[in-house]
Amino acid sequence: MNFDDAQGWLVGEPHKGLRAMFIMMNAARLGVGMQGLGICEVAYQNGLAYAKDRLQMRSLTGTKAPEKPADPIIVHPDVRRMLLKSKAVTEAGRALSYWTGMNLDIANKHADEGKRQEADDLVALLTPIVKAYLTDMGTEIGNECMQVYGGHGYIAEWGMEQYVRDARIAQIYEGTNGIQALDLVGRKMGKSFGRLLRRFFHPVQKFISENQADESMQEFIFPLAKSFAKLQQATAMIAQKGMKNPDEAGAASSDYLRQFALVALAYMWCLMVKAAQAKLEAKEGDQEFYESKIITARFFMQRMLPEADGRFKMVMAGADTLMELDASGF
Ligand SMILES: Cc1cc2nc3c(=O)[nH]c(=O)nc-3n(C[C@H](O)[C@H](O)[C@H](O)COP(=O)(O)OP(=O)(O)OC[C@H]3O[C@@H](n4cnc5c(N)ncnc54)[C@H](O)[C@@H]3O)c2cc1C
After folding, report:
1. Confidence band for 221, pLDDT divided at 50, 70 and 90
2. Domain 15-175, CATH 1.20.140.10 — does that match?
3. Does pLDDT of 311 surpass 90?
4. I need a labelling partner for 287 at 20 to 30 A (CA). Which of 3, 152, 267, 321 fits?
């Protein structure tokens, strides 16, 4: 836009514009992360309803609905894989968002300045992860749940393809997810000698130490601890190599963000398991709801968290393979 002969007024103090812009930007990034999470939720709700309703073939292990001409597709392992992935991401993504939101409130309202600073650090660290991971998942889960519908997912009448189209922009605006990853490794990782990182690393380490002897937590704590150790290793590698050669940090950034997000989700699942186990032991509340938390956590640990190992390997591979090819060779 070009405003000929228009008068401009300075808003705020001179040379403080970028800082002011980032206040708006950080809020917008968290908001866009919620857009991704919202799409995961609505896509999952629709996918689940359809999977219980749509009849197609019989279960591999024998008929489940003999009164019907075919079984509902929710009996099929591959349909369950798509639904469980959607459920595991959506519920842990929501927990991560609540944790971030709670810390946003503490950062704004707590009486103790130290607590405000700690919470503000954690929010700053988690903002690029919430924005990039949850919007990536908006597209991925939108696609999984569209797939649950088969051909009906692709045509406009059911509304599923609309979610996928709507999800795609959230990975781009308010700073592409590539830029979020650079923010994580470039600005957040090294800030104040790793002070922001410690706001995440310390509670995770504390949780592992306090719960590793608990027999009922073993199947959840062990994968969390393993993936957490690799996250620390990747962090140290990026910090060291990135100082000598910034391309190393840039090359690692997107895979590192994904690895970080998966570890954060594993931590959220461990917290949810702990709460669910307490409710089941006390026979309080909706027992099926808490059982389903534990089963979904198990799915996450066994069938989603292993992706963090793959991302770790990609991070550790370094920048050479990305930078070797001359632009003319592409
Ligand atoms: C529908 C829509 C609505 C929008 N609404 C608004 C709005 O309301 N207000 C507003 O201000 N903006 C808005 N935008 C702009 C949006 O925020 C930008 O398009 C977005 O941040 C990406 O910037 P760019 O288009 O300049 O991409 P570019 O910066 O040109 O990036 C192109 C590609 O290169 C990558 N890249 C660029 N630099 C680097 C680097 N240093 N290292 C690694 N990778 C890099 C990017 O990740 C991306 O993949 C909107 C855009 C769209 C499409």
Report:
1. very high
2. yes
3. yes
4. 267
| Separation of CA 174 and ligand 1 centre (Å) | 7
Query: How confident is the model at residue 23, as a pLDDT?
Result: 86
Q: Closest Cα to residue 39, out of 176, 179, 160?
A: 160
Atom of ligand 1 nearest to the CA of 179: 47
Ligand 1 midpoint to CA 62 (Å): 52
Residue whose CA lies nearest to ligand 1 atom number 4: 173
Q: Which whole-number Å values give the CA distances from 148 to 48, 74, 93, 177, in the listed order? A: 8, 9, 21, 26
**Among the listed residues 10, 43, 218, 217, the one whose alpha carbon sits nearest the alpha carbon of residue 139:** 43
* DSSP helix/strand/coil, 317: coil
Domain residue extents for the chain: 15-175, 194-319
Give, using CA atoms, the residue closest to atom 42 of ligand 1.
179
Contact at 8 Å (CB) between 297 and 269?
yes
Output the pLDDT for position 297: 98
What was the pLDDT predicted at 193?
A: 82
Q: Which residues have any ligand 1 atom within 6 Å of their CB?
A: 169, 172-176, 178-179, 182, 250
Q: What is the pLDDT of residues 121-158, one digit of tens each?
A: 999 999 999 999 999 999 999 999 999 999 999 999 99
Residues known to be catalytic: 174
Contacts of 206 (CB under 8 A, 6+ apart): none
104-114 pLDDT, tens digit each: 999 999 999 99
- For ligand 1, pick from 22, 168, 179 the residue to mutate: most ligand atoms within 8 Å of CB: 179
Q: For position 146, what pLDDT does the model report?
A: 98
